[in-house]
Amino acid sequence: MTGEYDKPGSNNPVRQSQKSTSTVSKQSDTSSQDKSAPLQAQCQTCPVHNAANLLKLGVDMQDWDFVIALAGNPNVGKSTVFNALTGLHQHTGNWPGKTVARAEGGFDYNGYRFKLVDLPGTYSLLATSLDEEIARDFILFGQPDVTIVIVDATQMERNLNLALQVMQITDRVVVCLNLMDEAERHGLSIDERRLARDLGVPVVPTSARHNKGLDNLVQAISGVATGETPTNPYRIQNEPPELKRAIDQLVEKLESAYPKLPNSRWVALRLLDGDERISEAIYKGELGDLTPGEPEVVSQGLEIELETAR
Fold this sequence. Notes:
Layout: H1 13-17, E1 20-21, H2 30-36, H3 51-56, E2 66-72, H4 78-86, E3 90-94, E4 101-109, E5 112-118, H5 130-142, E6 146-152, H6 156-169, E7 173-178, H7 180-185, H8 192-199, E8 203-205, H9 214-226, H10 241-257, H11 264-272, H12 276-283, H13 300-309
Parallel strand pairs: 2-5, 2-6, 6-7, 7-8
Antiparallel strand pairs: 1-4, 3-4, 4-5
Helix pairs in contact: 10-11, 10-13
């Protein structure tokens, strides 16, 4: 194995360096939204999550500094990581208007309060199922400060598909390479440093059920959330010429209407694929809510061009 993911004799870092806390549902007030609303343009270390949209998604950020999304395929140890980070102090319920369960927890680290939201286990973000729609909408519209993608170290070929899709939507990603103990048992050697360079985001090897690597995971989360760790995620751009031209046309229109939209290329791809939820976001002006520091914008001209492009 080409990297240390635990220090001999160390105890659970979650209990040493941070205090886990449970979430309490409270009515969000204007001051909390002002604190957590898009402040990216004002300071590098300020939260970037969208407090208003998070509240619509059932997540109240009052008294919390950062919100962290936990994503991953089913059966990759996502719940184990969630429990290890929150110390089993968590709040459970359903997503608003859905029958899908949601778990929230929290921890303190380096003077900041982190709320952790466990997204449904999914294999993709194409919104072909309710679980995929919930996970996709939370990452897109909630704009979490960090999205942790849990990857099974023994099934990287399959699991990295979701990680690449998440990185199409947001720059703020940490890949948690979990089940490293199983990888070792199968004789697998993983160069996580090379993988981090190739993906352009932090990659942290862990064995959550044995409390290994969690200190490094928390440090990586904090670094990305506060802006101390810059990311440059790899994004696939090998489309055929005809598709590339259509994407470029849509991206130009999107960026004209929403100059600071963080994921215009991904939005263009979903529109060309006929994604009804993204089309609805265009018509309702919801994409304006994703633009840091910009008022909500609805462009009738953009709607016409999108209809023509499709």
